[in-house]
Specification:
By secondary structure, this protein is α/β, with parallel strands linked by helices. The protein contains 13 helices and 13 strands. It has 2 domains: 147 residues, Rossmann fold; 147 residues, Response regulator (Rossmann fold, 3-Layer(aba) Sandwich).
């Protein structure tokens, strides 16, 4: 073989080999992460989701790609964002941050698997057929926070036993909050308390709700669950401190901001388990066969410093049940 022919043959082999080798590599799956939150809201939840994926062998940027879509607490943006992920042909959609996100994803596709994190009852809301056998293309982790408001109200009553009127700050938009309101009202009747229901879904309405609390002489406040209130937690905690009103919150982030007490699920653990479910689907399992993950970890967090500032004495029985006490 002539030298020129040999060089030409060798060059062609070198140019062709990487393409052939690349073609034999397994495709990197793409996961859609749809949330009603903004990109700067609660980044620990996205980290928990990625941790669940990683625990099952999928590391972002290495063998899985994640396309993020943020609703920025504007629910009307979610349907278009869900449609974008469908157009991208993602392998799975993680629909997080409440029922508007899940409903948007479900409306966008009946074939792409959807794994949700959700605070309500997914059967009651029509997301799945049953807890053990979801059916269809939807499964996920439910916190059932709508059914914790009664328990939270009881704990708040222990902290402020002389408060006869207790406010309930609630976002009326998420469907699951109908159950939250019902559960809280039933607990108030049982405890012999008057409940003042305050609807709010904007910063101005939150300000107005606190003005109503002052005018009605409410002795304590129960803040309902939901991603919107979490995004406004600094405003809510600041207003409660200004008016010296003891408040019970749904997650620990409020207490870390200076609120006196919270009771609810370990939300980050729910996101981690959603990541595990996404990984199982990427490995070939079907969402219809994956039972709804139900919350098993609940936490009571008390900020003693804030309680003292409010002139409250936390009962020893309440302290003994706390999962964490912030001094």
């Amino acid at each position: 073989m002539k030298r020129r022919e040999f060089i030409t043959l060798l060059g062609g082999a070198v140019a062709t080999w990487p393409l052939a080798a690349w073609a034999q590599q397994p495709a990197v799956p793409m996961v859609g992460f749809l949330t009603s939150l903004g990109p700067n809201d609660r980044p620990n939840l996205r980290e928990a989701f990625r941790r669940g994926l990683s625990d099952a062998g999928y590391v972002e940027g290495r063998n899985v790609r994640i396309e993020y879509r943020f609703g920025g607490n504007q629910h009307d943006r979610l349907p278009a964002l869900a449609a974008e992920l469908v157009d991208y042909k993602v392998a799975v959609i993680a629909a997080t941050g409440g029922s508007p996100t899940v409903l948007s994803a479900k409306a966008a596709t009946s074939s792409i698997p959807i794994v949700f994190t959700f605070g309500g009852d997914p059967v009651r809301e029509g997301l799945v057929a049953s807890i053990n056998r979801p059916g269809g293309n939807v499964t996920g982790a439910s916190f059932f926070v709508s059914l914790l408001s009664g328990k939270a109200l009881g704990l708040l009553h222990e902290l402020v036993p002389n408060a006869a009127v207790i406010g309930l700050l609630i976002d009326p938009r998420p469907p699951e909050n109908v159950l939250l309101l019902s559960d809280a009202r039933e607990a108030a009747r049982t405890l012999g308390l008057e409940m003042l229901v305050l609807n709010a879904s904007s910063p101005g309405e939150i300000d107005a709700a606190f003005a109503t609390l002052r005018s009605r002489g409410a002795g304590a406040l129960l803040v309902g669950a939901g991603t919107y209130f979490v995004s406004r937690r600094q405003q809510i905690v600041t207003l409660a401190a200004r008016d010296a009103i003891p408040a019970m919150y749904s997650i620990r982030e409020y207490v870390e901001e200076g609120g006196p007490m919270s009771y609810g699920n370990d939300v980050a653990d729910g996101y981690r388990r959603a990541g595990l479910y996404v990984a199982r689907i990427l490995k070939g399992e079907k969402p219809a066969d994956l039972p709804i993950e139900q919350a098993t970890r609940f936490e009571l967090v008390i900020n003693l410093k804030t309680a003292r500032t409010l002139g409250l004495t936390v009962p020893p029985t309440l302290l003994a049940r706390a999962d964490e006490v912030i001094e």
